[in-house]
Amino acid sequence: MNKTRQPLLRNKGVQSLLAALLCIVIGLVIGYVVLLLINPAGAWEAIKTIVENFLYYPTANARLRYLGNTLVKTAPLLMCSLSILFAYKVGLFNIGAAGQYVVGAGASLYCALAWKMPWFVCLIAAIVAGAVLGAISGALKAYRNVNEVISCIMLNWISLYLVNTLLANVKEGASPYTIQLSTGNPGAVMPDLGLGSLFGNNRYVTIAVPLAVIVAVLIWVLLEKTKLGYELKATGYNKFAAKYCGMKEKRNIILTMVIAGALAGMGAGLLYLTGFEQWSTTQSSVPAMGFNGIAAAFLGGLNPIGAIFSSYFIQHITNGGAYVDKTMYSAQISDLVSSLIIYLCGFVLFFKTTLDRRLDRRAEREAAKAAAQKGGEA
């Protein structure tokens, strides 16, 4: 029996799944305890509402429509998750995904509203903007050994205020929000190709959703099945060994950050070019999407395919938290419960390492027992 179970538990995919499920369960339990401490009367209903999300609505059409809203925001979260995990695979921590997401939003919206460009040009602009910002951090790391975390954090805030200033030229006159795409430039709205009709005629469900999934598959292929992916990961493991083997370690570091930045920038384009949200030119904090991508990346086991499901889950509970009864709990309670689960996502690798150690100990005990039995028979 052990011979059939142990290889299954050794499988990295199975370990990632078990670790992710454990994080989710522990997070929900802690969240439920917190809700009990605040107001026991509505704790069960609140935690159930967070988990249900769109199932909160009584009609099938409403459920489909709000499921569509969750998917619309899952697409950019998935792209930010891919940005984080791609850089992490190459030994870099791209906390600058938030800033790259910001410049992607700025480039796509400015091209759409100021220059009246079509959606695909605006999306390319978002990708290029994110890539350029990523290249700056990559170049500083490669040529001056500047820690990418420090440079990325600085660039996050620089990006935010630059984009706020830029998009102030295309905002509505009576509000700080940018002009709606549907009125300012309908041609900049991404096509839905009939997808909206599948989700209760939700006009925000566009090709952004399948496009994000396709990119996730392509990133998996790049990392696992190509020579370039092997070189990038080898550089991340040991840049000196990679250089000794003839690999261009500086180029690989910069290229990694360029690709990571392009992914985060594309994520912003996939959200704002649906018309689902407008940018506020007075916001003083970097959007959380880039930081939530860190949780999605680790919850998905740092695997591009796993990131598809983890990104959906995180967005699912985030959206579900908006429906918690505000007469019993403050508006921030949904963010608190979501944050607990997201925080625990960082322990996925810890759980996997702990499982491996336990399996190693069990294997050692079984080997010692088998050796003792063999010695006794002799």
UniProtKB/TrEMBL annotation:
<feature type="transmembrane region" description="Helical">
    <location>
        <begin position="333"/>
        <end position="351"/>
    </location>
</feature>
<keyword id="KW-0472">Membrane</keyword>
<dbReference type="GO" id="GO:0005886">
    <property type="term" value="C:plasma membrane"/>
</dbReference>
<keyword id="KW-1133">Transmembrane helix</keyword>
<feature type="transmembrane region" description="Helical">
    <location>
        <begin position="117"/>
        <end position="137"/>
    </location>
</feature>
<dbReference type="InterPro" id="IPR001851">
    <property type="entry name" value="ABC_transp_permease"/>
</dbReference>
<feature type="transmembrane region" description="Helical">
    <location>
        <begin position="75"/>
        <end position="97"/>
    </location>
</feature>
<protein>
    <submittedName>
        <fullName>ABC transporter permease</fullName>
    </submittedName>
</protein>
<dbReference type="Pfam" id="PF02653">
    <property type="entry name" value="BPD_transp_2"/>
</dbReference>
<feature type="transmembrane region" description="Helical">
    <location>
        <begin position="17"/>
        <end position="38"/>
    </location>
</feature>
<feature type="transmembrane region" description="Helical">
    <location>
        <begin position="293"/>
        <end position="313"/>
    </location>
</feature>
<feature type="transmembrane region" description="Helical">
    <location>
        <begin position="149"/>
        <end position="168"/>
    </location>
</feature>
<keyword id="KW-0812">Transmembrane</keyword>
<dbReference type="GO" id="GO:0022857">
    <property type="term" value="F:transmembrane transporter activity"/>
</dbReference>
<feature type="transmembrane region" description="Helical">
    <location>
        <begin position="204"/>
        <end position="223"/>
    </location>
</feature>
<keyword id="KW-1003">Cell membrane</keyword>
<feature type="transmembrane region" description="Helical">
    <location>
        <begin position="253"/>
        <end position="273"/>
    </location>
</feature>
